[in-house]
From TrEMBL, chain A:
It comes from Geodermatophilus amargosae. GO terms for biological process: ATP synthesis coupled electron transport; electron transport coupled proton transport. It is a multi-pass membrane protein. This is NADH dehydrogenase subunit M. One of its GO terms (molecular function) is ubiquinone binding. It is found in: Endomembrane system; Membrane. Residues 458-487 have a biased composition (Low complexity). The chain crosses the membrane at residues 6-24, 36-54, 83-104, 116-134, 140-158, 170-191, 217-239, 251-269, 281-302, 309-330, 336-358, 379-395, 415-435, 498-514. Keywords: Membrane, Transmembrane, Transmembrane helix. Residues 134-424 form the NADH:quinone oxidoreductase/Mrp antiporter transmembrane domain. One of its GO terms (cellular component) is membrane.
UniProtKB/TrEMBL annotation, chain B:
GO terms for cellular component: endomembrane system; plasma membrane. The gene is nuoN. It catalyses: a quinone + NADH + 5 H(+)(in) = a quinol + NAD(+) + 4 H(+)(out). One of its GO terms (molecular function) is NADH dehydrogenase (ubiquinone) activity. InterPro entries: NADH-Q_OxRdtase_suN/2, ND/Mrp_TM. It is a multi-pass membrane protein. This is NADH-quinone oxidoreductase subunit N. Belongs to the complex I subunit 2 family. Keywords: Cell membrane, Membrane, NAD, Quinone, Translocase, Transmembrane, Transmembrane helix, Transport.
Length: 548, 515
């Protein structure tokens, strides 16, 4: 086993960075954010180095390192990545600098400092790297739970008006899931103890032959935690609150990365460790997944708050990922992992753009905006790219993954796949409606206060009808050119904001056109996982119970 | 009939002798020392006694002997718990000695005998004289606790119970502020405590009647031989009730919130940390040594009581608006978690069970954390007294970021978040329970942890995410003693969470009962 310090450094660098940033004097916000950016870029470089050092056809886990941590419990501080974890690390590496840059000029709420925000952000990064890179189940659990604390403070200290409620709800949901998982983690240890030597090492646990009854219980323990995290439908209600109330950088990481730990966990822990139980519960999970796709899409259409809307679209997307994971085919699994990355990029971008719009208008309501495109074409352009990527238009990155999931699931789970396809149509509706209402049509709403002055010729009232707050007062005006006074509150994207979105836009298109390098990394790992689970769907029949 | 002098191993008794010796010297100082120099001398004597006891237990590590005519069992588990009590006791003494926080320079009333609210009382309220009787009293209590966990004989156990309880009853009533509340707490604790002692004594009598001996080893042989008659089981039940009362396990917890709230906060910290260790030490010894072969007699009882305690502690904790009461219910819930670990008993044949070391580690971790949490409570003051109402803590992070950060650390540890000592402890006891097949209990415990996490989080929410009230409390600048306590407990909470290996290993090695 070769010892590599690369992953250790990826955990240690942001952790140390967090401590340094936290120790800075309160007023040194500028230095704090520069440090945070520097540290997160170092992690990105390390992630790229790790990718270069990784051989997709080599061992399952590479770049491994392991030192005994708590000998009394048989716990090792063991890190290592397979292709799946590696792409997640890349995603973390890309998103954190982007988030730092996006939060560059945020004003902290009264009497709080951005220094602390950046410190929490870096600590969160350390935990996120750890959770994906851990190859010891106990270590994974520790990172899984520790991750809550920075996120809790990010939401609770820097979030929107209902941040207290959202932060506590987020924490408690995750904690309950985590504690149930803790029981399963201990259970796993006890099972391994009974089978010989007690261990938490993933590779040893994978080779255990656990009897079906125990598998069922342990599977459920892990599954509940991951289903809350991911989130699957009946357990999802914390996400719209947390996603909406978190500061925009927090939302990006929450939905873009943290929630992926759930789907990552399905793939890494539920399937290989409990293959029999996974097969047994698969129909049940698929029902939840498909129900999530449809239900969340319908709810997304009904949202008047843009951040809630984006959160609901994510729940729908997690349905697709879960479908890909539990379809038990390499193709669908690869699609699901690719989806995890792509969703992080696309939804991250969408959150960022929405955040930029909200920063300009000061309102989260869809109905408070209209006709932004004519005054801020760059913003609208990026919004469109993010939206199209979110609805998986061919040519954007999400298309590849969604297509792979559907094509991979169809042979094994035709009914569920067909139902899921309906979700694509719904996605088009909610994304395009959001885009059309806010970006097109007559200029109106909070960004165009002068638009209330009546104008002579009204254009066709094509969109604004559902606006929640201001549609009643917003009289229709000629779309362009807007009076100078009216546009005074609306700047187009600044250079910094362009720098924030540029890498993500580039990735949306690049991965849409040429996803091969990522697939190359992911596929062998997924294939190994699927062979663990004995990917043979013959025993189970797809029923049509997915209609609820 | 001649009475033979029992064999005494002075070395094995050294920790007890040091602590009791210090307590006796303290009494003499109180009687003969000049008043203006008493305080530093008393603090020094008490600290030398407790720290000396701590060092002595550490030097004795590895000893396994039954001494004093079979009345004391100095073994690994006993020494580990003695060391824990001595360390926590020394920290409590430091809290007692804090003179910077209260404007009148001490948390204790000058003269306990003066009626509360009388003219004399009002005069004394602002006098800067300090009361020094608390130090020998607390040292006696610490000595009693250390005797309690090594008692190998039910009668010695009873004597130790009284030695530790009586000083506690007294010092609970010595608060300088809100004296009536404090005195009420003392009376309540005394009355209910006497009942518990009576139960215990009756239990001793019944067990003696059934087995013909009060020696734990003899009791074990007797119940193993005869299968434990009704009388012995009844006696055991009464003994457990007495001990569960001291450990504040629901449904015998009703005194806990009132006493924790009314007693001076340093005393509350002392009780929450040390009494818990002592009571669980005795429970473990009684169950494992005397009734280890008759597991069926106590397992269902402990199982049920653990569930009740966890649920009561977690649920009632939710409704509290006073931090001291909240921490009291938290202590009830933690007693339940500890009992979960007590169930991880592998049976008399196999000494390698993980229940005993798990409970020992948990006691140490919990004691340090809860002591630290109460120490933080002494810092936050409004007017003359401590600000313990939840609403007063709103926005504390903006007044004093360090205080809030330290308190958050303790609360996260009590909630059992990874990388804190609380998590390591919980993991250890739950693993012991699950290994023993008690996974439904572990599941209940985990859910109770989640509920309890809510009220810990609520404090963090208040401190960090709420706006401070206009006339909020002030955060006092602690003097040397409290600073030391906070530094030690906070560091221990982190170290036992991040690198607990050494201490876990120690607990594992020490987990041996003789007798």
């Amino acid at each position: 086993m070769s010892d590599s310090l690369l992953l250790v450094a990826m955990v240690a660098v942001p952790a140390v960075g967090a401590a340094v940033v936290a120790a800075l004097p309160r007023e040194r916000t500028a230095l704090a954010r520069q440090l945070a950016l520097g540290v997160s870029l170092v992690v990105l470089v390390l992630a790229v180095l790790a990718t270069l050092a990784f051989d997709p056809d080599g061992d399952r886990f590479q770049l491994t390192s392991s030192v005994p941590w708590i000998e009394g419990f048989g716990v090792d501080f063991a890190l290592g990545v397979d292709g799946i974890a590696l792409v997640m690390l890349l995603l973390v590496g890309v998103l954190v600098p982007v988030v730092v840059l996006a939060s560059w000029e945020d004003q902290p709420p009264a009497r709080r400092s951005m220094r602390t925000f950046f410190a929490w952000l870096l600590l969160l990064e350390a935990c996120m790297v750890g959770v994906f890179a851990a190859t010891d189940v106990f270590l994974f659990y520790v990172f899984f739970e520790a991750m809550l604390v920075p996120m809790y403070f990010i939401v609770g200290s820097y979030g929107g008006p209902r941040r207290q409620y959202a932060a506590v709800k987020f924490f408690l949901y995750s904690l309950v899931g985590g504690l149930v998982m803790l029981a399963a983690v201990i259970g796993l240890y006890v099972v391994s103890e009974a089978a010989g030597e007690g261990t938490f090492a993933f590779e040893s646990l994978r080779q255990l032959d656990i009897d079906p009854a125990a598998q069922r219980l342990l599977f459920l323990g892990f599954f509940v935690a991951f289903a809350i995290k991911a989130p699957l439908v009946p357990l999802h209600t914390w996400l719209p609150d947390a996603g909406a109330e978190a500061p925009i950088g927090g939302s990006v990481l929450l939905v873009g990365v943290l929630d992926k730990v759930g789907t990552f966990g399905f793939l890494r822990y539920c399937l290989p460790l409990f293959p029999d139980a996974s097969r047994e519960f698969a129909p049940f999970v698929l029902v939840l997944a498909v129900a999530g796709i449809l239900y969340a899409a319908l709810l997304a259409m009904g949202q008047s708050d843009m951040k809630r809307l984006v959160s609901y679209t994510s729940i729908a997307h997690f349905g697709f990922i879960a479908l890909g994971v539990f379809a038990f085919s390499t193709e669908a699994g690869t699609g699901a992992v690719l989806y995890m990355v792509n969703h992080g990029i696309a939804t991250g971008l969408l959150f960022l753009v929405v955040g930029m719009l909200i920063a300009r208008g000061g309102s989260r309501l869809v109905g408070d905006y209209g006709g932004v495109a004519s005054a801020a074409p760059k913003l609208a352009g990026v919004f469109l790219v993010a939206g199209l990527a979110s609805l998986a238009l061919p040519g954007t990155n999400s298309f590849v993954s969604e297509f792979l999931v559907l094509i991979g699931s169809f042979p094994t789970r035709p009914v569920f796949t067909i139902l899921a396809t309906v979700g694509i149509i719904l996605a088009a509706i909610y994304v395009l409606l959001l885009y059309q209402r806010t970006m097109h049509g007559p200029q109106r709403g909070v960004l165009f206060p002068a638009a209330d002055e009546p104008a002579g010729d009204a254009t066709a009232p094509s969109t604004g009808g559902h606006g929640a707050t201001s549609s009643a007062t917003a009289t229709l005006t000629a779309p362009a050119p807007a009076p100078a006074r009216a546009t005074s509150r609306l700047r187009d994207l600044s250079r910094r904001e362009m720098t924030v979105v540029a890498p993500l836009v580039a990735l949306v298109i690049a991965l849409g056109v040429y996803p091969q390098p990522l697939i190359r990394l992911i596929e062998p790992a997924v294939a190994a996982t699927m062979s663990d689970v004995g990917a043979d769907p013959a025993g189970t029949t797809a029923t049509s119970e997915g209609t609820d | 009939m001649t009475i033979e002098a029992p064999d005494l191993s002075l070395a094995a008794l050294a920790p007890l002798l040091l602590v009791f010796g210090a307590a006796c010297i303290g009494v003499l100082v109180e009687a003969f020392g000049p008043r203006d120099r008493r305080h530093p001398v008393q603090v020094a004597v008490a600290l030398v006694g407790t720290l000396g006891g701590l060092v002595a237990t550490l030097l004795l590590a590895g000893t396994r002997e039954v001494t004093a005519g079979g009345a004391l069992a100095v073994d690994g588990a006993g020494l580990f718990l003695q060391a824990t009590i001595a360390a926590l006791g020394a920290l409590s003494i430091l809290l007692f000695a804090e003179r910077n926080l209260d404007p009148a320079r001490s948390a204790f009333v000058v003269s306990a005998a003066v009626p509360a609210g009388s003219v004399r009382d009002r005069e004394l309220l602002t006098v800067q004289r300090v009361q020094t009787e608390v130090y020998p009293l607390a040292t006696f209590a610490i000595g009693g606790m250390m005797l309690f966990v090594t008692a190998n004989d039910l009668l010695v156990m009873f004597v130790a119970l009284e030695v530790l309880s009586l000083p506690l009853y007294l010092i609970s009533g010595l608060a300088r502020r809100r004296r009536l509340l404090s005195q009420e707490a003392a009376v309540k604790y005394f009355l209910l405590g006497s009942f518990a002692s009576a139960f215990f004594l009756y239990g001793v009598a019944l067990v003696y009647g059934a087995t013909g001996s009060v020696r734990l080893s003899a009791v074990r042989e007797s119940v193993a031989g005869e299968g434990g008659g009704t009388l012995a089981v009844l006696g055991l039940a009464l003994l457990i009730v007495g001990l569960l009362f001291k450990a504040s396990v629901a449904p015998f917890h009703t005194w806990t919130p009132d006493v924790y709230q009314g007693a001076p906060t340093p005393v509350t910290a002392f009780m929450a940390a040390c009494t818990k260790v002592a009571a669980f030490g005795a429970i473990l010894r009684l169950l494992y040594v005397a009734f280890g072969t008759e597991e069926w007699t106590w397992r269902p009882l402990v199982y049920g009581v653990a569930i009740v305690s966890m649920v009561v502690g977690a649920v009632l904790g939710l409704t509290q608006t006073d931090l001291k009461r909240m921490l009291a219910y938290s202590s009830v819930a933690h007693a339940g978690f500890l009992l979960t670990g007590v169930l991880g008993y592998p049976g008399s044949g196999d000494p390698a069970g993980s229940g005993l070391p798990a409970v020992m580690f948990y006691l140490l971790a919990y004691g340090l954390t809860t002591l630290g949490a109460f120490a933080v409570l002494t810092l936050v003051r409004s007017g003359d007294g401590e600000a313990t109402h939840l609403s007063q803590w709103a926005g504390l992070a903006q007044r004093s970021p360090i205080t809030a950060a330290v308190m958050s650390l303790f609360l996260l540890a009590l909630a059992g978040i990874p990388l804190t000592s609380g998590f390591t402890g919980k993991f250890a006891v739950f693993r012991a329970a699950i290994e023993d097949g008690a996974w439904p209990l572990a599941l209940v415990a985990l859910l109770a942890s989640a509920v309890a996490a809510f009220f810990y989080l609520r404090v963090i929410v208040l401190m960090y995410f709420s706006e401070p009230a206009a006339d909020g409390p002030t955060v006092g600048v602690p003097g040397m003693p409290t600073t030391v306590v906070l530094a030690v407990t906070a560091a221990a909470t982190l170290v036992l969470g991040i690198v607990p290996g050494a201490v876990l290993g120690l607990a594992d090695q020490a987990a041996i009962f003789v007798g």
